[in-house]
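Quick one, tokens below. Sequence please?
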């Protein structure tokens, strides 16, 4: 039973839904996240930081809500906040993230721009388990894509996302089958 955390456009969430994976709850740190509009017939909830005393309290509420829905595996699909121990400790070894670089290279929120600025000729996508660091947990799978000379952040990110949309559902499906 999968819970997905989103902050943005939600194309990876869409890929999980299209793959027929058992997504039973979707949470976001942003009430207006476009990703939430992709979901029909599945419980969604927004957990905005401003509504809580601090990040730990927000993360605790989000984890408790997901647990209450029956979630066993959490997938971060473009979730742009770091998770605190209040969340991580409630889903040990059961949180997966997708990131638009070949980790451990280029972690962080600006991975695509950082890769272009560094002049790399190859990029890719990584699916990894989440720990308390920034995109630092054990790597489960990676796929490579070429970087073109005339790439902009948008064209490169689009190429990486095509890979993510195949890689993430495949790895999540494998985890569900375990
Ligand atoms: C993806 O590139 C993912 O790797 C990164 O954030 C982006 C989310 O895109 N963590 P989307 O919201 O799934 O379209």
């Amino acid at each position: 039973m999968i819970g997905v955390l989103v902050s943005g456009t939600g194309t990876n969430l869409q890929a999980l839904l299209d793959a027929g994976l058992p997504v039973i709850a979707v949470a976001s740190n942003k009430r207006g996240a476009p990703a939430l509009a992709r979901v029909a017939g599945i419980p969604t909830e927004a957990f905005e930081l401003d509504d809580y005393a601090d990040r730990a309290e927000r993360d605790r509420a989000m984890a408790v809500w997901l647990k209450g829905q029956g979630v066993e595996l959490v997938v971060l699909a473009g979730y742009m906040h770091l998770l605190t121990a209040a969340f991580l400790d409630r889903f040990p070894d059961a949180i997966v993230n997708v990131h638009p670089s070949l980790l451990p290279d280029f972690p962080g929120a600006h991975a695509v721009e950082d890769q272009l600025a560094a002049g790399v000729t190859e990029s890719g996508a990584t699916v990894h388990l989440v720990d308390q660091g920034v995109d630092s947990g054990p790597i489960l799978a990676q796929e490579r894509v070429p970087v073109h000379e005339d790439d902009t952040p948008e064209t490169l990110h689009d190429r990486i996302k095509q890979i993510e949309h195949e890689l993430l559902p495949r790895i999540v499906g494998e985890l569900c089958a375990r």
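The first strand starts at residue 2 and ends at 6. Helices lie at 11-18, 55-69, 85-88, 111-118, 153-177.
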